[in-house]
Amino acid sequence: MDELKELEFQRETNEYFIKRKAMVHRLQENPDFQKLIVEDFCEKECAGYAKASGDPSLSKEDRESAMQMAQAAGHLQRFLHICIRMGITAEGQSEEIDKMITEVRSNND
């Protein structure tokens, strides 16, 4: 029964990653997300922070803070990409896990 529980847990985990992938795709198609997050934040705001990070008139602390903010766009894009890749992997495993669950159940009966 432990194997069955593990497989069912894996199926639930895969469903979670598949749902997250779908959420990312819906976000990417949303015009508000594209405007506010991608265009305004990732492109414009983060470029301003990158510029500020090299401004010698700012304190070292402010320049470092600006650099961290400038990097936020890259972290967000990486997170979204990871969500998509994990969803794709989960989709690829789903059929095999379902087969294994069916097999383990039939062997336990």
Question: Helices and strands in order, then pairings?
Answer:
Layout: H1 2-29, H2 31-53, H3 60-108
Gist?
By secondary structure, this protein is mostly helical. It is built from three helices and no strands.
Characterize the structure shown.
- The protein has helices spanning 2-29, 31-53, 60-108.
- It is an all-alpha fold and 109 residues long.
- The longest helix is centred in the last third of the chain and has 49 residues, at 60-108.
- The model has no long low-confidence stretch (mean pLDDT 95).
Whole-angstrom Rg = 21 Å
Largest sheet: none
Low-confidence stretches: none
Overall 3D shape = elongated
**Oligomeric status:** single chain
Name the average pLDDT.
Answer: 95
Number of helices: 3
How far apart the termini lie comes to: 11 Å
Q: Given the helix and strand composition, which structural class is it?
A: mainly alpha
Give the % helix: over 70%
Order of helices and strands: HHH
Keywords:
single chain; 109 residues; mainly alpha; 0% strand; elongated
